[in-house]
Design goal:
542 residues; alpha/beta; Hect, E3 ligase catalytic domain fold; five-stranded mixed beta sheet; 17 helices; 45% helix; globular
């Protein structure tokens, strides 16, 4: 009996302009056709768009996810081996060898190559892999040099002569197009009108959320053909892109011979407002409304979960907080329901922390996280600097090599510092042990179910701030389904919360009859025993 093989399709293209082409469709449909012809079942698809393979960047994206999820005996199906890597052939060869040692088989359907644990030691296979990787890497090096020379020449002609070229369009947003017949850069009128409309609404006082909502309600097409509609981050990207004001920044070189969509004073005023609004965001005082920033996501659209504040008529004007999908607010998500924040938080900390939210705090890791983010930003800046210095060295700058060595030392020191900070975070947090201890210590102790105590702890703003900073240490994400009224906590790999209720990760948020809004169980009611808490199908769902 013939064994049915299962495969994971992988595809990649390296540059943003290729999104407009046919590369993605060709790779995916070609892989599916090959699988159907050869009796292979497709298990999953992974695709890296605008991700280069020359430095292994795809290992941190979809290809990296594929490697984590792939299981022994499965097939990785790709168009050609250089879709996996265009690095030095020794590096690419080791990657392929390591994959076969995990029991995976690689099939490059266009090249007719199949590399498996059974044939990886064959001289013919090794020769085929190495020569193919060497050719791909060599082509990539020549292509990179050619592109650098072409770009440098285009920048020089643009700055010295005001000459436009198709090369410049590659670095511009999609509303700019190259007219080959006239040899000029033109703009897409419909997209231009949308951009002007965004700037006008922003200067008229509308925020990014209101602009999103207006554009989505009017069904205005997005600039990049997004299926998810307009989002706040897209609006801010438009407002910050100086290309619309007629200034293109390429590797520190400013080119001003491109068409101008919005006046310079309009763009400058928008930047002033963005800075002013940024200072008001991320409030440092007042109530920390959202305990899940950065980890709370909508199950249906993946948008962040936010908190809304309303006045409840049924509670004589009492302030009520509710968790909702941010995508629903700008009409990119159809799930508009809101879950009462008090109920969500009460049940969340009851299920995961036995009514002891302080168990999640450990220490305040916010300062460490800020240092980590600053160090990561420094490493990123040094990486860009080193890349630019390599360009200068190739152009004959004698001092560039010395500066490269210095930047590399600084980068190595920063990487060591990053490792130290991350180690301190893990060591200091010690949250898993604390949570496990809580699970074992408080099993049938009724006081952990004291609703009034738990509500008082969650009402304390200092505790809320600490919880908001510490929960990301424990949870990879917290998934909200506002329609099904469930909240799912996804713990980070390696983190366990002991044996008590360990199989419950999905919490059902009840709709209580005594009030229009969902609120935590009455503190005056007697605390239920452990067995009752397990059996409450209306409150907790396996």
């Amino acid at each position: 009996m013939k064994t049915i093989r299962t495969a994971r399709i992988y595809g990649r293209f390296s540059s943003k302009p290729q999104e407009r082409g046919d590369s993605k469709r060709r790779q995916l449909e070609g892989a599916k056709a090959y699988a159907q012809k050869n009796g292979i079942t497709i298990k999953a698809e992974y695709f890296d768009e605008a991700v280069s393979g020359k430095a292994g960047a795809n290992l941190e994206r979809e290809f990296g996810r594929l490697l984590k999820e792939a299981e022994p005996g499965e097939v990785i199906l790709c168009e050609a081996l250089d879709r996996l890597s265009r690095q030095n052939p020794f590096i690419a060869g080791k990657l392929i060898y390591d994959l076969t040692q995990r029991g995976l088989t690689l099939i490059a359907w266009q090249e007719g190559k199949e590399i498996s644990p059974e044939n990886i030691d064959s001289l013919a296979t090794q020769f085929s892999v190495f020569t193919g990787a060497a050719v791909g890497h060599s082509e990539n090096v020549r292509k990179t040099k050619r592109l650098r020379d072409t770009t440098a020449n285009a920048i020089k002609e643009a700055q010295d002569q005001g000459k436009q070229s198709a090369t410049l369009v590659k670095y511009l947003p999609e509303c700019f197009v190259w007219n080959a017949a006239k040899a000029v850069i033109e703009v897409d009128q419909d997209k231009t009108d949308t951009i002007k409309r965004i700037f006008k609404m922003f200067l008229d006082g509308k925020g990014s959320t209101s602009i999103c909502k207006a554009l989505n309600e009017a069904k205005v097409p997005t600039l990049y053909k997004s299926k998810n509609g307009w989002r706040e981050v897209t609006i801010k990207d438009v407002l910050r892109n100086e290309s619309y004001a007629g200034s293109l920044n390429i590797k520190g070189h400013h080119v001003t011979c491109i068409p101008q969509i919005v006046p310079s004073d309009t763009f400058d005023k928008a930047q002033l407002l963005l800075q002013r609004y940024a200072k008001r965001s991320g409030k440092l005082t007042g109530r920390a409304n959202n305990l899940f920033p950065g980890i709370g996501v909508c199950k249906h659209c993946g948008c962040p979960i936010s908190v809304s504040v309303t006045q409840s008529r049924s509670t004589n004007g009492k302030t009520v907080y509710g968790y909702y999908c941010k995508g629903a607010k700008v009409n990119t998500c159809k799930h508009h329901n809101m879950l009462n924040a008090d109920t969500v938080e009460y049940l969340f900390f009851m299920v995961f922390f036995m009514g002891q939210p302080e168990a999640a705090i450990g220490i305040n890791t916010a300062e460490l996280r800020e240092k980590i983010e600053a160090t990561e930003a420094k490493i990123k800046r040094l990486t860009v600097s080193i890349t630019n210095l390599y360009d200068m060295a190739e152009e004959g700058d004698a001092e560039a090599k010395d500066r490269i060595a210095k930047r590399k030392e600084e980068k190595a020191d920063a990487e060591q510092e990053l490792m130290r900070l991350k180690g301190e975070t893990v060591e200091a947090a010690s949250v898993p042990e604390v949570v496990s201890k809580i699970r074992y210590e408080f099993s049938d102790d009724a006081r952990v179910y004291d609703a009034s105590q738990l509500k008082a702890k969650l009402a304390d703003n200092e505790t809320r701030i600490k919880l908001r900073n510490s929960l990301p240490v424990l949870f990879e994400k917290v998934i909200f389904d506002t329609t099904a009224r469930t909240v799912e906590g996804v713990l980070k790999p390696g983190i366990h919360t002991g044996t008590f209720l360990k199989d419950i990760t999905v919490i059902h948020i009840p709709r209580l009859a005594h009030t229009k809004h969902n609120t935590p169980p009455d503190a005056a009611k007697p605390s239920p025993p452990k067995s009752d808490l397990r059996s409450k199908a209306g409150t907790l769902k396996r």
